Amino acid sequence: MNSIRILVVDDHAPFRRMLADFLSSHGSVVVVGEATNGSDAVQKTDELRPDLVLMDLTMPGMSGFDATRAIKNKHPETKVVVLSSHSGEVYRTAALGSSADDYIEKSSMKHALCIVLEQELNRPLRVAI
């Protein structure tokens, strides 16, 4: 069975922990790390090479927009899905314009994440060289 390696990025520790616990309860998911801000996310993506980064938008220092752009420039094969409490087409458009692969509002997160995980499990795994 395929597994997905995920990096969780959010400056709010209780949310990160809740999300990591939810993801880890899915047998095909391995949470390889957590990051608290955008620059930490870029560094941990370089080190851990996750398949999927779940990225918050609003964080101190480097924003989720900038971190997403940096990750996708260095690792275009890594999927970045923005999770945000901001609703509205303006945020979705800005996130996708920053090279995010998808945008999920935190209010509908669990259902939408299950769909993303199912899609990821059905794609071929990368082979690290």
Q: What would you note in describing this structure?
A:
The protein is an alpha/beta fold. The protein has a single domain (4-121), classed as Rossmann fold (3-Layer(aba) Sandwich), CATH 3.40.50. Helices cover 43% and strands 21% of the residues. Helix 2 packs parallel to helix 3 (64-74). The protein is globular and about 30 Å long. The chain starts with a strand and ends in an 8-residue tail after the last helix. Mean pLDDT is 85; it is low at 125-129.
Annotation keywords:
single chain, about 130 residues, alpha/beta, Rossmann fold
Overall pLDDT: 85
* CATH architectural arrangement: 3-Layer(aba) Sandwich
Structural class: alpha/beta
* Strand fraction: 15-25%
The succession of helices and strands, N to C, reads EHEHEHEHEH
Number of helices: 5
Give, in spatial order, the strands making up the sheet with the most strands.
2-1-3-4-5
Number of domains: 1
Radius of gyration: 13 Å
Low-confidence stretches: 125-129
